[in-house]
Amino acid sequence: MKSNQKDRFQTVWKQLTRFFQNEKTHKNARVTYQVIWNLALILIIVGILGFSFAGGVGAGYFAALVKDEPVRSKEDLKKDIYNYEETSEVYFADDVYLGKLKSDLEREEVSIDKISEYLKNAVIATEDEYFYEHDGVVPKAILRAIYQEFTNASVQSGGSTLTQQLIKNQILTNEVSFDRKAKEILLALRVEKFFEKEEILETYLNVSTLGRNSSGRNIAGVESAAEGIFGVDAKDLTLPQSAFIAGLPQSPFGYTPYTQQGKLKENQEPGLNRMKTVLKRMYSNGYITKEDYDKASAYDITKDFIGKKELPSEKYPWLTNEIEKRSIEILSVSLAKEDGYEEEDLKDKDLKKQYVALADRNLRQNGYQIHTTVNKKIYDKMQEVTKNYPNFGYDKAGQPVEAGAILIENKTGKIISFVGGRDFKRSQTNHATASLRSNGSTMKPLLVYGPGIDLGKISPGSVIANVPITIPGNPAWSPGNYGGGSYTGVSTAREALKNSYNIPAALFYKKIINLSPASYLEKMGFSTVTKGDYSNLAMSLGAMEEGVTVEENVNAFGTFANSGEFIDAYMIDKIVAKDGKVIYEHKVKPVDVFSPQAAYLTLDMMRDVVNSGTAASVRNRLAFSSDWAGKTGTSQNYSDAWFVATNPSVSFGTWLGYDTPKSLKGTYNGLEYSKRNMYYWADLINAAYKVDPKLIDPDKRFEMPGGIVSRSFCGVSGLLPSSACQKAGLVKSDLFIAKYAPSKADNSFIDGQYVSVGSKRYAALPQTPGEFTSGGFMLNPDSFADIGLQYVNDPGSVIPGGEKSGNVVGTKAKLNDNGKVPAPLSITISNDQITWGLHPEGDVVGYRVYKDGKKVASINAGESLVYKVGSGGSYYVTAVDIVGKESAPSQRVESGAKKTSSKEDTTKNKDDREKDKIADKKPDSKKENGTSAKEKDINKDIDKEQNQNKDKEKEQNQDKDKEKDKDKENTDKVDTETDKDKDTVNDKAKDTDKAEEEEE
């Protein structure tokens, strides 16, 4: 019996021993102890408060502490608790994530179901192990706070629950006082009444300050910590990673592994020790097993720290800056409208400044999602092309050639991509959106030809002078073509735009300036047009007072592609608030600028620029074929190089120049500045094409609208061709807006006689010898004003269609007699050919050739100055001026076997000159135009006796010489201007760059 009792006792003892040794029993015992202890503390506190209340002290004191604290509703508490800063996020087009905008504190909100269980348990075990048991406060902490307050202890501790910490962080301050503690208790109890534990925990995990991330930025919230420290989402955190983050709130910047520069600290011990403390508490509270604890404690967490991570503002500096700037502008207007203001009211600088500051703060605190139009792949490719492009040019005065480019979708205005510059660290200026520069001749279609056609004052076939001019004014203005040449007498608008002639553009603009064509620029989004720009003739060549950005310039070209409607370019597609509400969304607002007919005709003219004009060299650089229409441009002193083009889908333009304007002129890697820019344009658009061929190279072409007709016109007036114009070979054809097509017959010609001197023609005078005149068509003085001849410096230079085309000359092109007899010529003979040079006196119109004292030929000064001699004979040549005065004979030269000694030649020449002097002193009364009647009869006989074969041979030689002259003229044009040949394949040497210099 005793043995059985002993056995039962031993069995019970073992069971009791196992019970007390069981870990669960220990935990339950601890909990029971804590509950009993807390109940005891509550009783003590109640007793103390009861005693105080009994004495009327405690109640009054507590009431005094919280008397100013309002009774907050659930909505008020929710608003305050959830009112924390959250970093705004930015997206490329199609919701491709770009990153977070820079802010003082980076935070990303995350819901509780997307947070690792390890992390939730780690935070509770470390910060508030009774989180799920208490009602917002832990009595022992309250008692401790009361004791510290009454004893004025040197160490003051704050609230210990997560709820109280949340109240302190979101509603109250960090002040250590019983006043704050009393309010904290009151609010904590109220929060626990209204909110679930999971809601409180979620908010706490989102607001906690957690040190720095791998970019060196301050972070708050566990999602930002998970991404910024370990490169993972909060839901994917491991046990060691969770323990590390859970330990950070106690000393965020003491335990964080990163410096302000985003580098790993050399000493990681504080953070590692804190992680082990958290793991120990997790084990002690039963959240992990001993095996989990040992494994996590031994884990080398430092290998999980990610290296320095480039911020979006570092990887995409121009883009993020531009997004911030545009977002702030949008939000400032939105916020002002919410307060009852109109957008017009923001012209007040102080009011504008106020709302810009408010918008900036909201952008960095409210966690917006900003969606942009920028295509990430195209943008990245364009930056890569820019980084590797080898042909920008030489650095000057320590400054490199800078670049700007922008790609815009025509029908929407979306900015697909841009290039802000070559190196943001060197120059933060966004050369695509912010830099104001003269746009050179890219202004011509926008300000001259487009508006002129729309107003019915210009058509592609309109004709104007293209020779040196002077337009009166104060001061007078004398614009010149690029390189000081490229003068063609007259030019059509189409030819002028294709070859970028400045003088025709200036004269066309003079015709329409009183109709305020600058208003067209403002309709097309030019924001910097000044009052002075409206009256400045040099605006026709790009001479704006302030300049224009690449964005605005390219955007305006899209107007032509949109059939005359301007659609403003934009980058911010929409802005979404944290709650998913769209607070801003871009809406397209077309503006009517040109008629569809005017837009198409301007486009059609710009097609020629790309196909065979100043931009022809770009074609063979393209990896695809498209219906491009564009314009090159060069500003004054070659400071800016432009090329802007549009097709039915997109508009794209590039700019090169120095930040401090300097000349770009000069070859670099064998390329002049204009080609360097056009090749850059081609490389960028090729890169975009590889990413999105359908966007960059649409299947369709520009379609001609109704209301356009093709008509023939006279190339000297632009009017319907007369029979005289047809006989002169000056009939051309082009497209016209039907209601503005020519309806009046040309009256530009009258019959007349002219003389030629070199490459120029002049009206003959009554005294001019007939042997040197030619019958032709003279320009009617009544037509001078229509083609700008009133501004022409030398009316004789205006010959339609080129320097030697048809038999046409201006009636104002007169050659004046210099009042003296021409000096004798000097001639040479070689291979039976007599040659001489053009007479230095400008009034000489022809030359007479004499054989053995008899005239054998008359050669006008516009032909080749060569005469083929026959067998034997003595020859000399004289010069004849515009009024018929003839010079003394040149020295004599001999042909054939018979030679004249130099002494005899000198004697004969001397005798001849003496005779000429006598003849000058005693002129024959019957002499006409400087030639005696007798001499005329002799000359007639000589002319009849001329061998027909000789005449034929002479004509052949002259024709050959004319061809040589034409070849020389063409060569000169290539050297000074460009090769106008339509075949520019393979960029032959003859395809010379052309550009346009702005004259001011």
Can you walk through the features of this model?
- This protein is an alpha+beta fold and 1000 residues long.
- 39% of the residues lie in helices and 15% in strands.
- The chain has 30 helices and 30 strands.
- The strands form 9 sheets. A 5-stranded mixed β-sheet has the order 2-1-6-12-13, with helices on one face. Strands 8-7-17-16-15 form a 5-stranded antiparallel β-sheet, with helices on both faces. Strands 21-20-22-23 form a 4-stranded mixed β-sheet, with no helix packed on it.
- The chain is elongated, with a radius of gyration of 46 Å.
- The C terminus is likely disordered.
SSE diagram, text form:
Elements: H1 2-21, H2 23-54, H3 58-66, H4 74-81, E1 89-91, E2 97-100, E3 106-107, H5 117-127, H6 139-151, H7 162-170, H8 178-194, H9 197-207, E4 209-212, E5 218-220, H10 222-230, H11 239-246, H12 252-255, H13 269-284, H14 290-298, H15 312-315, H16 317-338, H17 349-365, E6 369-372, H18 376-388, E7 402-409, E8 415-419, H19 443-454, E9 463-466, E10 489-492, H20 493-499, H21 502-512, H22 518-523, H23 550-561, E11 565-566, E12 572-576, E13 582-585, E14 591-592, H24 596-612, E15 629-634, E16 640-646, E17 650-657, H25 673-691, H26 693-696, E18 708-714, H27 723-727, E19 731-737, E20 749-757, E21 760-763, E22 774-779, E23 808-810, E24 828-830, E25 833-835, E26 844-851, E27 854-860, E28 866-868, E29 873-881, E30 893-895, H28 902-921, H29 933-945, H30 948-976
* DSSP strand tally: 30
Strand order of the largest sheet: 2-1-6-12-13
Low-confidence stretches: 53-67, 154-158, 801-805, 897-1000
Q: Which structural class matches the secondary elements?
A: alpha+beta
What can be said about the biggest beta sheet?
A: 5 strands, mixed
| Chain oligomer state | single chain
